[in-house]
Write a structure and sequence with these properties.
Layout lengths: L1 H9 L2 H6 L3 E2 L1 H7 L5 E5 L3 H6 L6 E2 L5 H4 L8 E5 L4 H12 L5 E4 L3 H6 L3 H6 L1
């Protein structure tokens, strides 16, 4: 709990104002094919049945504590979900568990899907 307390103390105005905690869809596009980055989809199994992202590691948020060992510590982890909320929770959880390179996607999975339509996809 002390790790989590310290992380919350560091989340001040400067922290959020800098934007260093998050990544936009444009940022996602830039690192999508970079092996150092892992996208962690924390949506439920039911959500993934209807819309999946094949490039992402899928671990539902409620399973993350038991499956934390599946999240590589030597990669930069980008958390996401359908509404940003669970992605932010996963982001904080990973930081509290000693992950150093972590960001949360500041877009919903719907916004991400739009990036893979022909026009935006052709720009990637």
């Amino acid at each position: 709990m002390n790790d989590l307390n310290q992380i919350f103390k560091e989340m001040d105005f400067q922290f959020f104002g800098s934007g260093e905690h998050g990544m936009s869809v444009d940022g996602m596009r830039k690192v999508l094919n970079n092996d150092h980055f892992v996208f962690l989809d924390v949506r439920s199994n039911e959500e993934v049945k209807y819309h999946s992202f094949p490039f992402a590691l899928h671990i539902p948020l409620n399973e993350l504590p038991e499956r934390l060992g599946e999240v590589p510590r030597d990669k930069f982890v980008i958390t996401f979900c359908s509404s940003v909320f669970r992605g932010a929770m996963a982001y904080t959880y990973l930081l509290a568990n000693g992950y150093e390179e972590v960001k949360g996607l500041t877009a919903s999975s719907e916004d991400m899907a739009m990036a893979f339509k022909p026009g935006p996809l052709s720009k990637m």
